[in-house]
Amino acid sequence: MSDIFEIAGRAIGPGHAPYVIAELSANHNGDLSAALAIVDMAKARGADAVKLQTYRPDTITLDADTPDFVIEGGLWHGRRLYDLYEEAHTPWDWHPALFDHARKAEITMFSSPFDTTAVDLLEDLGAPAYKIASFEAVDLPLIRYVAATGKPMIVSTGMANMDEIGEAVAAARDGGCTDLVLLHCVSGYPAPARDYNLATIPDMARRFGVSVGLSDHTLDNTTAIASVALGASVIEKHVTLDRKGGGPDDSFSLEPDDLEELCRGARTAWEATGRVDYGRKSSEQGNVQFRRSLYFVRDLPAGSILSADAVRSVRPGYGLPPKMLDRVIGATLVRDVAAATPVRAEDFACPRTTGYPPFP
pTM for this structure? Predict the structure, then answer.
């Protein structure tokens, strides 16, 4: 299994800029025109892909009123699961229009399926990849069914422990998936940055031998951008046209300017992370002259033996480096020198102390 692959022609993995996914989720608020506008916004603000969620309330839960099916605490306290998903779902008859619109806008679209019938629908629409949501990471039969499509898979790991992540990876591999990304995730809505423990990202990549990214539910972009320096190859964030829109996910989603800042910041962080390199950089070349070097501080005739008070380490950097100071003190000048001129190797007959190499 390679840790570098492509989705719709875009390379993902180490050595490539982070792949930014704009999660539409429920932020259409029941309005197809709003969903289409979010697709256009994501393209305009620099995202690589828009992700949907493909389910109906009856494919994700039961129409039940018992306590098991009523949410306790958090953003959706008191809501029946069925009612929440009825409100939040993206109607299946919208999917063709959304995929067609994304193709025309030249932005990749794929989805999180929540059952096998959703996978079948997305296959008919030509989805180029699949996302397994955090809450479904333990649904190994679903993972195997998605893996059998042969498409790249992105698996979010919120709430999953190490063993469960291993089981999900094994299910994907057993099912035929060769291109897999794990997303480090905290399934809080919103989630505090202190819960993210981004140091998990490189550890997860080493343990499971796959590219790793971040599904970020914090309220700003700091956590997502920081993750890039730790190797995140994929960044996923919920997006909306208006954080005050009143939808189930609006309050913790990025508005257009925030998404643009995320795309720009993540790519800048990737460029800045780069590779191990101790060499002088192109932007530094013009500043080499401002380093310190050795300069004569008074006029001296040829034949003088250089004393410590006749030379200083100062800026600019046209003379011998300061590390040569002990070697030039006591050396004999072979030519006249002037104050405020750089000390050079050709000013001397030889170093004062025998056994030293020649001046550079």
Answer: 0.85
